[in-house]
Amino acid sequence: MKVLAAMSGGVDSAVAAARAVDAGHDVVGVHLALSRMPGTLRTGSRGCCTIEDSMDAQRAANLIGIPYYVWDFSERFKLDVVDDFVAEYSAGRTPNPCMRCNEKIKFAALLEKAIDLGFDAVCTGHYARLERSTGGALELHRASDEAKDQSYVLGVLTAEQLAHSMFPLGDTPSKAVVRAEAAARGLSVAAKPDSHDICFIPDGDTRGWLAERVGAENGAILDREGRVIGDHDGAHAFTVGQRRGLRLGVPADDGKPRFVLEVRPKTNEVVVGPKEALAIAQIAGHRFSWAGRPLDEPTHWFDCDVQIRAHADPVPARARVQDGRDGTEFVVVPTEPLDGVAPGQTAVVYLGTRVLGQFTIDRTVSAVPVGAASTAVGS
Questions:
Q1: Alpha helices, DSSP H only, in 142-252?
Q2: Looking at the record, which segments are called Interaction with tRNA (predicted)?
Q3: In this structure, are 83 and 179 located in the same domain?
Q4: Helices (H) and strands (E) in the chain, counts
Q5: Which of 123, 165, 229, 358 has a C-alpha 20 to 30 A away from that of 182?
Q6: Positions marked catalytic
Q7: In terms of pTM, does the model score above 0.85?
Q8: Domain identity same for 169 and 86
């Protein structure tokens, strides 16, 4: 096959490209330039798309012996990832920019261009597996190494995208094996630290970065009963589950810490309460997709696992697709309440190790309602 290897400049994508060559594929390496101003991206161990990463990727491609190119996706990245990030925070939601980057850039824009140029598949260094069901359908599964599993951030991929994807590291037992292989191949990135944090916020100050783009305006901090107990410099700086950075002038009756329960961008208010009020009994979202073949009868309740963060443990649940107030929505009811769920987060639904699909959380129902009424957060 003719394979386009997406090379971030890290050890995983370099080894994935090398394995694709070993498998006999015709491989071409490509690095994505995501900013026209490199100083706006995080560098060192925190970045993944900087000039130094591009140079690391080129050295790896040269050693592996494959052609190497840099493609400018900066405009698409700004529109689909950076601008979306700002818009979601402005609406009081907590987005996952890495999830959006996979959805809109690596497996949409990149894959579309690759297919147009005659490539059969895009190869990445993600830790996930592709398997065929007994009926022949292609399915996305967790990696063999659960500690490094990245199937969550790939939950946005559709059946068509999976058909043109390749994950050579999916069956690797550990990251240590990948690093050892990279060292044996002579790759200079063998000991390079993993990237983390948001690449387009250079200093890691998300609150300050958002304030420059959304604006900072004083507002009230309320308790669950609606009483003003503090003030803030802008609701966009807060996310559900946050404890630090709250300016509360009225102590809690029980003396315990309080946490952000809800962000209201329209009124510039932040609602706080006890930790137990973060427990969520139900989540739902109408922006959902299937990772491969959907269930035959998704409107019937079925048993599954749900994961709401990249490194969170899966939680047993029941789920179905139903008609909701904003149209058809995916509803999940966990067997035990979820903790600190924020609208805008992505919920990925699993059947065993298989990724069934995902949705953006629009609506949650508290397991600890105020009085006798349930609280819909993010409505």
A1: 159-162, 175-185, 206-214
A2: 148-150
A3: yes
A4: 9, 21
A5: 165
A6: 101, 199
A7: yes
A8: yes
